[in-house]
Known about the structure:
Pfam families: Acyl_transf_3. The structure is a single chain. By secondary structure, the chain is mainly alpha-helical. It has one domain. The protein has 15 helices and no strands. The protein has helices spanning 52-71, 79-89, 92-102, 111-139, 157-167, 169-174, 178-189, 201-216, 219-225, 228-248, 272-294, 309-322, 337-354, 357-367, 392-403. Helix 1 (52-71) packs antiparallel against helix 3 (92-102) and helix 7 (178-189) crosses helix 11. It starts with 51 loop residues before the first helix and ends with a helix. The relative contact order is 0.18.
Amino acid sequence: MSYERCSGLSGSRETATAVDTSPAPAADRTPAPPPRPGPATRGGPPAARRDAYFDNAKYLAIVLVAVGHAWEPLRSDSRTVTALYTFVYAFHMPAFIVVSGYFSRTFDASPARIRRLVTGVVVPYVVFEVAYTLFTRWSDHAPDREISLLDPLYLTWFLAALFIWRLTTPVWRLLRWPLPVALAIAMLASLSSSIGNDLDLQRVLQFLPYFVLGLCLRPEHFGLLRRRSVRVAAVPVVGCALAVAYWSVPHLGYRWFFHRDSAEQLGVPAWYGPVMTLATFGCSLVLAACFLAWVPGRRTWFTALGAGTLYGYLLHGFVAQGAKPAHWYAPAWMHGPLGALTATLVAAVVVTLLCTPPVRRVFRWVMEPRMEWAFRAGEGRPARAGEDRPAQDGRRNAARVLSGSR
């Protein structure tokens, strides 16, 4: 794969809609009539076009995240569930992070993007870190648990990581070989047990290569994955991966795919860390490619839900945590095949509902706050009609690209 020095990061104005770069047949090149103005375009700039492929990918990845959490209480009862759990954890977050990196390519620390980073990442992190701490005081019977914004709790680690990764994007733009450097950092992080829990830095560093890989990808790379030959080749690869996952249950620990511990914390010699970092990166990359190859590129019934994956991600954790005091897993039948199937279906339905527009409208004030009062007038906002803002078009395009990672 040619990274072209991450040339897609500098001066690029492409949006996520250009996945299929092949030219259209001559008969299909007739100019299309201009779109009629609708409610979203009258009196303002046209609404950003969203690529169905990436919305589908984000929705399916977030469903796998919720299903994985639903399987956690069932791991000790079934080798099959544990194998599926290991298989899913090998690629679902890497795939989600790669897509997040892809949509962060144009982040350049301009006022508009810093403002979006604060309102779309920092504010939800603070709110949900406090909310999860208060909630787990009840669900985990830990009334003395302290609120700490430096020690991410449960799902909030991803927001802390996304904040750090995006802030460092301009650095990766300058490097000649960003992915090898990111891999070296991840390998070194796995050696150290003294990194600490601040902002879950161990996991931030070990997952860093996936984000940097997303920064280096271009639309044509995703176009290659969507070829029929790649989709067919993914079938035996996934079959072999499932067989290896089943074999590995009594031999290898799935905690390597969590990327939150050093080698010594996992009870193995330190040199295992760099070796397993490379091994898991290769494994996760192949499986993530298989997953992305199977994602449909057309609009489906769940395509619109891809715009609300952050809602589903952050909100489903309350349901997963509430299952403990509610004793949902107490019945004996829940620890058999029927219970695993039930947990899978319930998790998929719950996270789907949490991505729907009604839920997004209810929680938009905290997930996507405007916070006009917190910023200086004219700083980090799009130019209005009649204002002399030379960067107006560039900022509008940046807002469209960034909105895809939400």
